Amino acid sequence: MVARTEEIRVERLRKVFPSHDYNKPAVVALDRVDATIKPGEFVSLIGPSGCGKTTWLRLIAGLEIPTEGAIYVGDRKITSPGRERGLVFQDPNLFPWLTVQENIAFGLKIKGKLTSEDQENIASLITLVGLTGFEKSYPYQLSGGMAHRAAIARALVNNPEVLLFDEPFGALDAFTRMKLQNDVLRIWRERKTTMILVTHDVEEAIFLGQRVFAMTPRPARVKKIIDINLDYPRKRDDQTFIALKEEVLGVLDFHNI
Ligand SMILES: Nc1ncnc2c1ncn2[C@@H]1O[C@H](COP(=O)(O)OP(=O)(O)OP(=O)(O)O)[C@@H](O)[C@H]1O
């Protein structure tokens, strides 16, 4: 199923977390962030630790309210979480007492029996994420990569127009991580969902994103947007890929850390 997608506009976004301690100042996590993300685009957000990447993603998800500014999906202002925006965290957060199938169905938030259409949707998502044969498995019976696949399927169950990834593969071994990156690309191309990925990994940002948003240290602002004009599937040892990696590292000033 192909999702209907709209442009995401981020306008003069500012997020301040007040301090609950007299001796500590408030934390300005984001300040004057402007961005436009095209319908169906894949963008990566990268920046120093603690700069405000997760906060930005949570604002798009509607889990936080901006202090100033706003985010729009099409002409709708985001004020709360919504089914059209799915979220995948670093921790798959599966319910241990539910099977893979039931964990995915949980995302539907419906009471009572699943319709045959719901069941078909869940079955096709299980195929899409490569978990055929594990429908009735419990989370303890899955590998780390399989648990992430189930989490991606759960996030896709409402056919969201935007999928938000918060360092989804940070805790996985390099091989599983690369495999899941390929799977995410395949899903993106099949579903045409807008993808926004927060990552610490420059290579991952370039391997997946059509554009990489490099952020400043806190408060996060967009320091530079790097266009990744490489065809998919991308080769990590390609000269242009390596040059782009150098460019992103340079923008982030990683060479001077
Ligand atoms: N609910 C909150 N209350 C207070 N401060 C918060 C809250 N959430 C985030 N912060 C602060 O906002 C700043 C940005 O945090 P955020 O998690 O967005 O950064 P990040 O770039 O995702 O970090 P990392 O790369 O290390 O995951 C940090 O200083 C953090 O302590």
UniProtKB/TrEMBL annotation:
Is Transport among the key words of this record? yes
Keyword Lipid biosynthesis tagged: no
Question: What InterPro entries does this protein's entry cite?
Answer: AAA+_ATPase (IPR003593), ABC_transporter-like_ATP-bd (IPR003439), ABC_transporter_ATP-bind (IPR050166), P-loop_NTPase (IPR027417)
One Pfam family for this entry, by name? ABC_tran
Q: Which GO terms describe its molecular function?
A: ATP binding; ATP hydrolysis activity
Q: What keywords would UniProt list here?
A: ATP-binding, Nucleotide-binding, Transport
Would you tell me the protein name for this molecule?
Putative ABC transporter, ATP-binding protein possible nitratetransport system
